[in-house]
Amino acid sequence: SCVASAAWHMGAANAKATQDSIKHTVDAAIQPLMAKDRIHGMAVGVIVGGKPYVYNYGVASTETGKPVTRDTLFELRSISKTFTATLASYAQVSGDLSLSDTTSKYLPVLQGSRFGNVKLVNLGTHTPGGLPLQVPDEIHNNDQLMQYFKAWQPSCAPGTCRTYANPGIGALGLISAKSMGQDFTALMEQRMFPALGLKNSYIDVPTARIPDYAQG
Q1: Model confidence over 70-93: pLDDT tens digits?
Q2: Active site includes 148?
Q3: Over the stretch 18-55, which tens digit does the pLDDT of each residue have?
Q4: What's the Cα-to-Cα distance from 125 to each of 15, 59, 95, 144, 164, rounded to whole Å?
Q5: Which of 104, 129, 161, 189 could form a disulfide with 116 if both were Cys (CB 3.0 to 4.6 A apart)?
Q6: Active-site position among 21, 100, 155, 164
Q7: Considering 78, 94, 100, 155, which one is annotated as catalytic?
């Protein structure tokens, strides 16, 4: 039993040394970055040897001084595109759409337009033909968005050039939800997030979780 006890303590010591080493490495990378770019708060997750480690830095709000914790909610921003593409893939597997379909199949108002002939796969890969990063500021609803898409003229043939753009992936999300006959937000929060085991991810942050929302 003494040998077993010694072995356990040695294993615990090695595990502690490994954790300390990982934290030191992450600290050395993150702390100078935060100072350089004046970042007030961050949460960093790494996987080493198949095990997850999460380190929190700074504050979630400069107004309250509340520190970043395991409960802090950060905006995913453009990482959300990954979830939109996943929903589109799910819709294809479910038989609700095909990524080789054109946008006008699901948005009939676009029939006869250049954007209406763009395939869904091109929306997901940022290759519809040269969309801008954002839609114009004066567009505030779907009707105005459809008129914008109808008037859009590509700068290259679909699939031949890549321009990172929000309008295309946004249209893919709209079409994916439409093909499944449901609301995009509901599909994400009630089907996609639970299927991925994400219990604290939201599109519409619940009132009870607002205090955990990181200032950004």
Answers
A1: 999 999 889 999 999 999 999 999
A2: no
A3: 888 999 999 999 999 999 999 999 999 999 989 999 99
A4: 42, 36, 20, 24, 9
A5: 104
A6: 164
A7: 78
